[in-house]
Amino acid sequence: MQRSGGENKMGETKDPNKSFDPYEAWRGVHESNMDTWAKAMVQAVNSEAYAKATGAVLDAYLTASGPLRETLEKTMTQALQQLNMASREDFVSLAERLTNIEMRLDDMDAKLDRIERQNGKASAAGARPKKEKK
Question: What are the residue boundaries of the structural domains of the chain, listed by start?
Fold first, then answer.
């Protein structure tokens, strides 16, 4: 039974614009549950035992996958050679060569700048007007 001012029997005010949401309680439980799990997982992940276990699993994976990775790399290199396509090694070699060329060009540019400065000083010294004799 409604009382004046939008209050019900229990004295609670009811917003006439707000509809009933049956999932509101479920959302509250869900958020609380997620917060609890998040805190527990942070504590578990930050432990020394977790770090050791993760390291052991990763080490075992890398050890087991090494031969497979090498075989895959060899097979891929052969396939790329047969298709006349560049491999990773080709790109690395090309990048090293281009880096070497770039460094040489920088050195040549620095030497050229030094020569230009020396020639500029020499021409400035030679371009001074001489005193005329009277």
Answer: 46-85, 86-123
